[in-house]
Design brief:
48% helix; five-stranded mixed sheet; globular; alpha+beta; two-stranded antiparallel ribbon
């Protein structure tokens, strides 16, 4: 291995931390990973008899390039030394196995970024993994990222919103699986021989979320003729403020999955449910973050109001028109929020212009959160199928079901002799179709949504410039 001397510099407040992406070994690593990715099957293995497959010698040489680059870059990141040792060992084991389905459990267990949450701290991550809302296959990815952990956020986590596994992160650079709509780094996406008993971290790229939010919100405001208050208009135009809003929103959202009156635990226990149940759970977590943001604003926290409108605008403008219509539970939650606010006269579409009652928006949004919380609280006393129908009733009060829906016709339209999981087959892929308003908005935002693929704060600024 050829060692390259690292000059001490200061990067974003971290002494002695030369930017990994400026080191000549980073493009070497990135190019080697990009060479391996197309050779891999969906499960991460390499089939040497497949069309376009490399020779075994070529594959071995390319992985050696990955290993060499990791070993050169590792001294820049001494806080992850145990991970890089395990990563190199896992890469060598993959080669020795004949490039079968990769198993990177040892390096996953060695990577513990939540144990040292320092603002600006760099990490280089290399794993065979799928990227949520990105690449569905377990191909190798390499990503350089930085922690977002300012003192004000650390203080809130320590004193109010305990979430020891949460990572706010930003992109420095990445391989093709992140040149997508993916904005998360989750350990459960990584190829391993068995899942760990519990995962010890989860990362949200707040720079991508903020840049995407800004682009879609600005286009939506223009299309809909919405007049924004001066402070909210200033927030939407400010990447730093939006990143701060998203990292706080995500931290509160993430912990809410295990807090509150929970009749079920939808993401920790493997179970099959109608997709509106997942839609309500995600919306509950977002509205809990909204409710907490209202409290923070009342206490003088400068981020409270920003979080409220990040939640409202992202949920109302981007979520319903992003992704396909096949059990799109995030889209459903956005549709429900808009319909609820519309029914309660907080939003109005009049004279081809959207108007929002800014004074009543927090109160009525919290009211929807309370309705979902009441549903959950009552759920503990209900059989599963009864609870599913109660949730359906809540959603269908505000959103019109598909006219062909069997669930909309009630229990008598279903074969109740079947176990509940089988009745999920009767749920339509688009059980609650888009309204005419959203159909029109989706057409006008289609190109804007597509343009956010792979977006980062830096790329967003280059386009706006």
């Amino acid at each position: 291995m050829t060692e390259i001397l690292v000059q001490d510099t200061v990067a974003d407040g971290i002494p002695g931390a030369r930017r990994v992406v400026e080191h000549p070994a980073w493009p070497e690593l990135k190019n080697a990973v990009e060479a391996v990715r197309p050779w891999q099957s969906a499960d991460g293995s390499i089939a040497f008899d497949a069309e376009g497959a490399p020779t075994r010698a070529t594959a071995e040489a390319t992985v050696d390039r990955m290993i060499n680059a990791v070993e050169v870059l590792a001294p820049l990141l001494p806080h992850d030394a145990a991970y890089y040792r395990a990563l190199v060992a896992d890469l060598r084991k993959w080669v020795a196995s004949g490039f079968v389905v990769p198993d990177f459990l040892d390096s996953l267990l060695a990577f513990q970024p939540a144990q040292q949450r320092a603002d600006g701290l760099q990490h280089l991550v290399v794993f065979p993994m799928y990227t949520q809302n990105g690449n569905p296959d377990r191909n190798f990815e390499a990503v350089v990222l930085r922690m977002v952990w300012p003192e004000w956020l650390s203080e809130l986590e320590r004193t109010r919103y305990d979430n020891p596994l949460f990572l706010g992160i930003t992109f420095e650079d990445f391989t093709a699986g992140y040149d997508t709509h993916s904005a998360v780094l989750f350990p459960e996406t990584i190829a391993v021989r068995e899942a760990p008993e519990r995962f010890s971290w989860g990362g949200i790229f707040c720079d991508r979320e903020a840049a995407r939010f800004r682009r879609v919100t600005e286009a939506s405001v223009d299309i809909l003729g919405l007049e924004l208050p001066d402070d909210i208009r200033a927030m939407v135009s400010d990447q730093k403020r939006c990143q701060d809003a998203f990292v706080l929103w995500d931290m509160v959202h993430d912990r809410t999955h295990s807090h509150g009156d929970l009749p079920f635990d939808p993401f920790m226990i493997k179970q099959r449910q109608p997709f509106w149940m997942y839609g309500l759970e995600e919306l509950r977590c977002d509205l809990t973050a909204f409710k907490e943001a209202v409290k923070l604003e009342s206490e003088g926290n400068t981020h409270g109001r920003d979080v409220q409108y990040a939640v409202l605008f992202d949920r109302m403008f981007r979520f319903p028109v992003s992704g396909d219509r096949n059990r799109n539970y995030d889209g459903l939650g956005g549709q429900l929020l808009f319909a609820y606010l519309h029914k309660h006269d907080v939003v109005r579409w009049t004279d081809n212009t959207l108007k929002i009652d800014w004074e009543r928006a927090p109160q009525v949004t919290n009211q929807l959160c309370a309705e979902i919380e009441d549903l959950y609280r009552a759920g503990i006393d209900r059989p599963k199928l009864v609870h599913w129908f109660a949730a359906y009733d809540l959603v269908s009060t505000y959103l019109a079901p598909h006219p062909g829906s069997r669930w909309a016709k009630g229990p008598d339209a279903l074969d109740l002799s079947l176990p509940p999981r089988k009745l999920v087959d009767d749920v339509l892929p688009d059980e609650f179709p888009l309204s005419m308003f959203y159909e029109a908005l989706a057409k006008k935002l289609k190109n804007v949504i597509a343009s956010t693929k792979g977006i980062t704060a830096a790329s967003a600024e280059r386009v706006s410039a």
